[in-house]
Design goal:
single chain, alpha+beta, Jelly Rolls, 9-stranded mixed beta sheet, 5-stranded mixed beta sheet, 8 helices, globular, binds 2-oxoglutaric acid, Cupin_8, JmjC_dom, Cupin-like domain-containing protein
Length: about 300
């Protein structure tokens, strides 16, 4: 089955993304069996309804956080107004972070006072000041991600803290890859995920000198400019929508683009594996090379490489 993009039709055929194939969907028991085999970790899949019974999926909503945690401050990713966030170049150049009250941020999002997608809480550490929220979730990466024959202490050490994401409909994470394995849990609202295999790196113009951060692609995968990026026609996207309680497994180094279809709350669970350590070393090398190149080109005046929103 070929899925159509929601966002492609307005500008005519020349901006149509390559057709996407649907992401595979598994039950929780099928996913556990798949992940028990190393070769089962080569491709992404959605685990349908896996966390539906978590208290987080039953209780958490923007209203829940506004009413109970509204006075806490949180780091918010913002873009200067008027920015088309589907364009990776504009996304990276116009992004900044600020610390604000959770109540004010959520009220603005709910009232639609922000330009669509111009305000997003990304990978926040909501649990630091609200330890009790840990009772509403489970350490999915420790349970299902890290191989279960590893010693308990090592399993914990390989897992990063869960990240909390909250944003209005229309937020977009432009196409990038991460240096970790990932389970991403959709807690509230719906999101559309579009993934590309590491083998599509050339079609995504990976390592483009246009961008300060090597983890990102310059291609707007929802509205590609084939004049600038003709090889993107060769990319083979996978696509699927996550409902509350669904989980997506994103293997390390798989490219992903995410659009919130509704106001959303998401948790992500990153963990280290051997291939993740290799990916991190490679990214470190490429980023250092990019930074030196930019400094030489600018006569020593260039900014440091932009911080990475998904870190
Ligand atoms: O949900 C999003 O907007 C992006 C999530 C993401 O990039 C991740 O979990 O690695």
């Amino acid at each position: 089955m070929v899925m159509n993009s929601l966002f492609a039709s307005d500008a005519g055929f020349s901006h149509e993304p390559p057709p996407a194939q649907p992401l595979e969907r598994l039950s929780a028991s099928e996913a556990a069996a798949r992940l028990a085999r190393p070769e089962g970790r080569e491709r992404p899949f959605i685990i349908s309804g896996m966390t539906r019974s978590w208290p987080a999926c039953r209780r958490w909503s923007p209203t829940f956080f506004k009413e109970r945690y509204g006075d806490r401050s949180i780091v918010v990713e913002r873009w200067r107004s008027g920015v088309a966030t589907t364009d990776p170049m504009a996304f990276l150049r116009n992004r900044y972070y600020s610390r604000e009250s959770l109540r004010a941020v959520i009220e603005h999002m709910e009232a639609g006072l922000e330009a669509p997608g111009s305000c997003y809480i990304t990978y926040a550490n909501i649990f630091e000041d609200a330890q009790e929220l840990n009772a509403d979730i489970e350490p999915l990466h420790e349970q299902l991600g890290v191989p279960n024959h590893y010693p308990a202490q090592l399993r914990r050490w390989l897992c990063l803290r869960p990240g909390f994401w909250l944003g209005p409909a229309g937020t977009v994470s432009t196409v990038h890859y991460d240096r970790h394995e990932n389970f991403n849990v959709q807690v509230y609202g719906r999101k559309r995920w579009t993934l590309f295999a590491p083998g599509d790196a050339a079609a995504l113009y990976a390592n483009s000198a246009e961008l300060p951060v090597v983890l990102f692609s310059p291609v707007d995968v929802e509205r590609p400019d084939y004049g600038r990026y003709p090889s993107f026609r060769q990319a083979r996207p996978l696509q699927g929508d996550l409902d509350p309680g669904d989980v997506i497994f994103v293997p390390c180094s798989w490219w992903h683009h995410v659009r919130a279809l509704e106001m959303s709350i998401t948790l992500n669970y990153w963990w280290w594996s051997a291939r993740a350590a290799w990916a991190a070393a490679r990214v470190g090398y490429l980023q250092a090379r990019r930074h030196v190149g930019l400094r030489i080109a600018s006569g020593g005046e260039s900014e440091d490489a932009a911080s990475m929103p998904t870190e």
